[in-house]
Amino acid sequence: MRSGKMESVYNRIQDHRLQDRVVSAEEAASWIQDGMTLGLSGFTRAGDVKAVPFALAKRAEQEPLKVNVYTGASLGSDVDKLFAEVGMLNKRLPFQADPTMRKKINQGEFYFIDQHLSHTSEWVRANVLDPIDFAILEAVSIREDGVIIPTTSVGNSMVFAQHAKSIIVEINLAQPELLEGIHDLYEPGKQGERSPIPLTKPDDRIGSMGIKVDIEKIKGIVFTNQLDSPSTIVAPDEETVIMAQHLITFLRQEIKAGRLTNRLAPLQSGIGSVANAVFHGLLDSEFTDLEVYSEVLQDAVFDLLDAGKVRFASCCSITLSSSKMEQVFSNFGQYRDRLILRPQEISNHPEVIRRMGLISINTALELDIYGNVNSTHVMGTQMMNGIGGSGDFARNARLGIFVTKSIAKDGKISSIVPFVSHVDHTEHDVDVIVTEQGYADLRGLAPRERAELIIERCAHPMYREQLREYYQEALQRGGQTPHVLEKAHSWHVNYAKNGTMLQKVVQHV
Amino acid sequence: MRSGKMESVYNRIQDHRLQDRVVSAEEAASWIQDGMTLGLSGFTRAGDVKAVPFALAKRAEQEPLKVNVYTGASLGSDVDKLFAEVGMLNKRLPFQADPTMRKKINQGEFYFIDQHLSHTSEWVRANVLDPIDFAILEAVSIREDGVIIPTTSVGNSMVFAQHAKSIIVEINLAQPELLEGIHDLYEPGKQGERSPIPLTKPDDRIGSMGIKVDIEKIKGIVFTNQLDSPSTIVAPDEETVIMAQHLITFLRQEIKAGRLTNRLAPLQSGIGSVANAVFHGLLDSEFTDLEVYSEVLQDAVFDLLDAGKVRFASCCSITLSSSKMEQVFSNFGQYRDRLILRPQEISNHPEVIRRMGLISINTALELDIYGNVNSTHVMGTQMMNGIGGSGDFARNARLGIFVTKSIAKDGKISSIVPFVSHVDHTEHDVDVIVTEQGYADLRGLAPRERAELIIERCAHPMYREQLREYYQEALQRGGQTPHVLEKAHSWHVNYAKNGTMLQKVVQHV
């Protein structure tokens, strides 16, 4: 392998001390022992390592091998799927989004820690977690001074590299060299010893272009040549278009009230089709000169950059559809001075989010009449993906906005229920709710005020009467947050038994 | 009134332009109109205004008068009690702790917004809430340059003063003049326009000694002479002493693991007897040279200062028992260079809490087998006090610790339940749980691991088998967070029906 790639080796490994460390993925994987802990690059299908995990999974098919895997967020390239299928995981954190992995998590086959994405680095730095034996990181190149240049995501790569005993680098020739220079790697230092993070605007540069490590720790370098997995994003549909319109109506009200200008405030949007559609809705708006300070840039942000609507975007990962990826990376020169990629603890840092006063838009799985949001657990028990950065953002943002369609499964599920079956965002942290029915601005409202607004403005008409009945019965019992506890989860129980949350159907059964 | 107090007037109102604005409480109260919004000083019974609220309540007894009342936190001097009794409130935020007010809130007589204590100032600054007509603030004095010197709490006084249309100052002659100089008033500015908060250690001074306002806004000055209400703290009992020991055992483990030194990290403790007892437990520990960065300083912190265990304490309010108040304020000179009082948005700021890596200790009302915490709602519906600062701290601290006795009401209530009846702190934010039974370190654990640890280490033995049965039944159904949703709140329902959470009693009924 080494000889045929000499030109690439010299181009992409500028530190000559490292040039003889190029190995095959199989050799690198052979260093990993049963019981070890791995820190992998990768955040929402971008910038993940694409060779060593496969070689490792192959070993795990033939010998007893279980590892802990820490990542930035979800991995692409079917790595999470494969790890789950092979059964080689002991513990996985802090996020995933793969259907096979999801199934295995819910079957209890391995431990999954669903964590705020800004928090993992603190645990690594403070030695709370099992120490990392190998950091395995995708890179564009390793520079002369031994600095590793990440690819399409930064994730937790820096903290993994700094705290791992050893490092394996995958240099991916399919990742454009023009990525070099768009990263901004800032290390805040230990809690109790750190200075303020000197970041006040999305386009501030406060760190270095790559990850500086002790080069003795770089045990091997593997070459790959494979694009990131494209995002699985679904195009806007009629309902997500309407939701975007409601959100824009709300933002216009904020401008009218003098709380925003038509430059808005730095925008964050969660991963997924709804959030992407909402961003897409900004294309035809009067808002201008926008800034994005987010975790993940999806297709819509590049459309907004193309349209001159967004002037600058800071993120921790770029996750695009197949066609968008081709367009963006073949013309990357026209984007790179308007982009910064940061570590996820900086993109998601409460300090920075609160300071800038972001407008934060994330997707809810379900929410209740008092504004508590479930982002993670289907019917209270089955993990979907994880909380991701939604908690980092919603709690600290100027506006914590949650979007969801008001019903799911053709109306068999109401996304608005009496009492959410799992709480990821409490009533204290949810400012605005948007469904295709309308929006509810919950700021400054007590629970009883919120309930009426959410039911009348956001719930689907087919469930409104049922919600009103619950609320009226709860009101009879009183309290700051009235509930009929024995019925609080009855909608979920009804769904489990009868396949619908609609009570009338129950009466027929 | 004016003539008899001339000496005090000159001493305490150094800005001569203001000396003719001294009025009676009745006159000041007469300016307040039905429908207005008031911003009052006061945080956990300290530094509240003591005359104008009474004069206002008297008016409300005789004429239609309803107002919105924003404060720092709970008011002392029976003001919250009186406001609730008279029925003069439309909306109250962000915290209270009065039994009468609690009752009226739960009866739905007025709207109560239970808010993170660091968040109110953002809403005021951004004009999200109804604008403040009058800020009514207790002061030690008004200095030559028109700067208002707060008393035993800072709370939200600065942001109220800056944003109110008019200001009424109550100069309290009973508050020691030595308080001047211990405040540090820092205004972060608007979101999106602010710089990093330059605070890296509890003893950093970053602001001014008082609240600078446009003196034209000071409409009247009222003199009072009345001590703060003493705290209602209960002395440590056998169980809280044991809880303190468990916490100390945990902290020793952290030192052993190299994650802390015996100087620990800046400490925060919530209000209340349990938290105070836990702090008290540090008196006999080997920990030394401690720092406190908290909301409220209670008796125990002054004992720790006396013992030389605590070297410096930063807070937003000082709330003491009667005897401690006398001791501290008659010898205030020996404390004042070891204390700083800050606005609550700074004492509770996520930026500062995360940077310093606080050890945060707060009280849970109940918690569940997966580590979700209810801090506010008895049986899910009845407001106790409010979330206070617990969410500001737990989410951002190095260690988010929650303490609670494992049972309440002689065992009729288990503080550890299958599913909390209200969520204030999610599984993502709770690191360590301490009861008199032991402690559970939840960091790095998946829900299934947490459940076993919480049940076996923290639950009361009389409820352990019942919790195990629930958990085992839930496990049969699977999921990342196994539950039997139709039974998730059955313990609370059982208590409502049968006066106990114990199932065996149900079987007899």
TrEMBL record, chains A, B:
Record key words, sorted: Hydrolase
Protein name as catalogued: Acetyl-CoA hydrolase/transferase family protein
PANTHER family in the record: ACETYL-COA HYDROLASE
Annotated ranges, domain Acetyl-CoA hydrolase/transferase C-terminal: 331-470
Domain Acetyl-CoA hydrolase/transferase N-terminal: 20-176
SUPFAM superfamilies to which the protein is assigned, alphabetical: NagB/RpiA/CoA transferase-like
Family note: Belongs to the acetyl-CoA hydrolase/transferase family.
Molecular function in Gene Ontology: hydrolase activity
Gene3D superfamilies: 4-hydroxybutyrate coenzyme like domains, Acetyl-CoA hydrolase/transferase C-terminal domain, Glutaconate Coenzyme A-transferase
Entry superkingdom: Bacteria
